[in-house]
Amino acid sequence: MEPIYVVNSVTKIYGKGRLAVRALDEVSFSVRRGEFSVIMGPSGSGKTTLLNILGLLDKPTQGKVFFLGKDVSELSDAEASKIRAKHIGFVFQTFNLIPWLTALENVEIALAIAGYPFYKRRRRAKELLEAVGLGGRLHHRPTELSGGEQQRVAIARALANNPEVILADEPTGNLDSKSGEIVINILKELSLKQNRTVI
User: Fold this and answer.
1) With pLDDT > 90 as the criterion, what percentage of the chain qualifies?
2) Which of 151, 117, 152 lies closest to 135 in space, CA to CA?
3) pLDDT (tens digit per residue) in 122-140
4) In a 10 Å sphere around its CB, with 0-12 CB exposed, 13-18 middle and 19+ buried, how is residue 36 labelled?
5) C-alpha distance from residue 163 to each of 55, 130, 155, 197 (Å)
6) What is the pLDDT, as a whole number, of residue 122?
7) Mean pLDDT, residues 114-121
8) pLDDT of residue 29
9) What residues does CATH 3.40.50.300 cover in the chain?
10) DSSP H stretches of helix in the chain
């Protein structure tokens, strides 16, 4: 099976001269479709930088990144945005939910961006929230949800575009151990049962 990602000698440098910071140094690896991969390292070791490059939010200073067999290292912002919208879902440590919208509406917004017609959005958003165990919390705003529940809304939102890849940047960083375990189990299920790549 062809890898979904191939990363060849990727280096990322921020700044210039004496102020330059080498966030990534000659990183190489590949990830196969359906794999559940974990990037580990101390704070400041470049994990978020690497995820941003994999998510086409940033470009390497040197090296190549291949996604679905295509070199995505030098794409224009518009090209990268198209690929992201179609193939990649993001889960962030800080949830990034819109506070005045309900859980259902937060997922519906992502569906609108993904191009779902209006009449299909509510049903699909409800299905996604039920899939992460929040069928009874559809009409609650983020402030009415626990941290673990907010992260599950964020996972449902990340699934809106039916992506092949979920990139999760410290998805349990703001959660207690029980909520963190629930979130990790949901992400593992996405990989095992739906053959999605989770990093």
Assistant:
1) 65
2) 152
3) 999 999 999 999 999 999 9
4) middle
5) 12, 18, 11, 9
6) 92
7) 87
8) 97
9) 3-79, 90-198
10) 47-54, 77-87, 103-113, 118-131, 147-158, 177-194
Q: What tokens does 162 get?
A: 């039916």
User: Which numeric CATH code is attached to 90-198?
Assistant: 3.40.50.300
Query: What pLDDT score was predicted for residue 174?
Result: 80
Task: Give the three-class secondary structure for 36.
Answer: strand
Token reading at 26: 């000659």
Among candidate residues 92, 19, 31, 103, the one with its CA nearest the CA of residue 57: 92
CATH architecture of 3-79: 3-Layer(aba) Sandwich (3.40)
For tokens 């049962």, the residue is: 193
**Structure tokens, 102:** 């309900």
DSSP sequence for 125-164: HHHHHHHTT-GGGTT--GGGS-HHHHHHHHHHHHTTT--S
What proportions of the chain, in percent to the nearest 5, are helix, strand and coil?
40, 25, 35
Q: Tell me, what amino acid is at 136?
A: G
Whole-number Å distance between alpha carbons of 35 and 48: 19
